[in-house]
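Q: Sequence in, structure out?
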Amino acid sequence: MNKGLLALAAAVTICFTACAQKKDGQKQEASKVLVAYFSAAGTTARVAADLAEVAEGKLCGIVPETAYIRNILL
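A: Exactly. Output:
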């Protein structure tokens, strides 16, 4: 649980940093946000989808080449 919260906090920090305004009256270019996630059980996928919606970014799931066995995740 703590790792998930830490990852979410890091992602939010990156989004805010990417959206920071430039100084000296320069125009800000539109930033591009990519939310990449790995979710074995689906919880992280839901959080990543919400984050991508708020950040107006693209959502990209990372899928393992070999699927996990459900019993291992529990």
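Helices lie at 2-18, 43-55, 70-73.
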